[in-house]
Amino acid sequence: MKQKLEVNQVSYSYHTLDGETPALSHVSFTVRAGEFLAIVGPSGCGKSTLLSLLCGLAKPESGSILIDQKPFAQTGEAIGYMLQKDHLFEWRSVLSNVSLGLEIQKRLNADSRSDLIHMLKTYGLEQFQEKRPSQLSGGMRQRAALIRTLALKPDLLLLDEPFSALDYQTRLSVCDDISSIIRSAHKTAILVTHDLSEAISVADRIIVLSARPGTVKKIVPVSFPEKKASSGENADGKPSGSGTPAPGSSLSPMERRNAPEFSRYFNQIWKELKSDD
Question: How far is CA 78 from CA 36, 47, 157, 246, in A?
Answer without folding.
Answer: 17, 21, 9, 36
